[in-house]
């Protein structure tokens, strides 16, 4: 069932601001970027905002520095008029959507996405609004399909800007940066993941060879990609910094960051046994102390040196190879299924697999003897036989 509480409307009140500032330093950050903060404020105050300059500020170290500036800068970057946001539909409209129950279940499990120490009533209010925020996007765009992880992106925007503006931001991103993740299947998501190995191979062929030999694949980075790292980074300040970067960049930038993270961890990877389970276990856990500013710079450099068009042929080959492997696996699985069905009768004769031929022979002889006796009895003079019983 959906969480209920007494907080209604947009909960980005001063009380919520104070809660977030106390439990996560992101709202109070910015002293080391004082000059940059002032520059961002000047850009945002202009009648005609220089979007290229604003984009550069989002990408460069520190991003937009504080959530106060993000509330102004994010809508500007995405071309959103915060004074003209569509009203929320009635509850029966939101609750009638095909994905409503799944959204509620995911939001009810999202406790760890709220800063520790947050007042329970505030958190419950935010969770209710998170459900509404997600449903507002989905009911307006029937072609979009909810996926588990989408709520991790939405909650980040909710914590920073509140429900109404978060809805407008997420709606715009869902039609652009996040669109490939919101298909009815995962084909385009898998295609994006296939950029990782070509990127790694351009810079570090030995690392690519090691990972391909282990057959670790790219599934370890799926949650990084589809949640914009919101599900895997422990601190809100690091998540919103990545969001500054992603909003201002090409939609494929999250996979460039993934490649940068993997290459940063090269020493760990190459000293780990070249086995799928070992490398998957290592890579699926992102260390808490990664130098994110440095990694964002490296991701930008990767994009400049190897833009998506430069990698397209390699990615297509990987995609076709993976599709062929999947086809072979499905065919093999089908053959095994047919063989199991064909040989299932043998289980009648033995459970432990021993003395197979003896047991089959015994039952075969028994069947033959029985058939002979039946034939004999049918041909016998029953009057003669009846005398035997007297």
UniProtKB/TrEMBL annotation:
This is TBC1 domain family member 20. It is a multi-pass membrane protein. It is found in: Membrane. It comes from Dreissena polymorpha. One of its GO terms (molecular function) is GTPase activator activity. GO terms for biological process: endoplasmic reticulum to Golgi vesicle-mediated transport; Golgi organization; vesicle organization. GO terms for cellular component: endoplasmic reticulum membrane. InterPro entries: Rab-GAP-TBC_dom, Rab-GAP_TBC_sf, TBC20/Gyp8-like.
């Amino acid at each position: 069932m959906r969480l209920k509480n007494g907080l209604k409307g947009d909960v980005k009140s001063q009380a919520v601001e104070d809660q977030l500032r106390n439990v996560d330093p992101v709202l109070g950050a910015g002293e080391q970027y004082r000059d940059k903060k002032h520059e961002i404020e000047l850009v945002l105050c202009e009648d005609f905002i220089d979007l290229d300059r604003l984009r550069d500020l989002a990408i460069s170290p520190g991003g937009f520095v504080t959530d106060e500036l993000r509330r102004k800068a994010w809508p500007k970057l995405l071309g959103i008029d915060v004074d003209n946001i569509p009203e929320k539909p009635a509850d029966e409209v939101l609750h009638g959507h095909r994905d409503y129950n799944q959204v509620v279940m995911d939001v009810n499990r999202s406790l760890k996405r709220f800063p520790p120490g947050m007042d329970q009533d505030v958190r419950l209010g935010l969770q209710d609004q998170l459900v509404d925020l997600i449903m507002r996007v989905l009911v307006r765009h029937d072609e979009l399909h909810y996926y588990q992880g989408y709520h991790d992106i939405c909650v980040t925007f909710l914590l920073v800007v509140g429900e109404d503006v978060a809805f407008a931001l997420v709606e715009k991103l869902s039609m652009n940066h996040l669109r490939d993740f919101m298909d009815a299947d995962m084909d385009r998501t898998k295609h994006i993941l296939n950029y990782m190995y070509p990127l790694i191979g351009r810079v570090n062929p030995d690392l690519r060879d090691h990972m391909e030999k282990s057959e670790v694949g790219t599934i370890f980075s799926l949650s990084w990609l589809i949640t914009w790292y919101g599900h895997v980074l422990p601190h809100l300040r690091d998540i919103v910094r990545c969001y500054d970067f992603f909003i201002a960049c090409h939609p494929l930038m999250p996979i460039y960051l993934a490649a940068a993270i993997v290459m940063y961890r090269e020493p760990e990877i190459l000293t780990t046994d070249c086995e799928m389970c070992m490398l998957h276990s290592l890579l699926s856990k992102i260390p808490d102390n990664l130098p994110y500013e440095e990694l964002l710079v490296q991701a930008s450099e990767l994009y400049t040196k190897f833009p998506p068009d430069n990698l397209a042929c390699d990615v297509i080959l990987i995609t076709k190879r993976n599709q062929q492997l999947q086809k072979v696996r499905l065919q093999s699985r089908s053959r095994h299924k047919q063989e199991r069905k064909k040989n299932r009768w043998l289980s009648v004769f033995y459970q432990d697999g021993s003395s197979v031929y003896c047991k089959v022979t015994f039952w075969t002889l028994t069947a033959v003897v029985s058939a002979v006796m039946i034939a004999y009895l049918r041909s016998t003079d029953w009057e003669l036989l009846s005398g035997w019983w007297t």
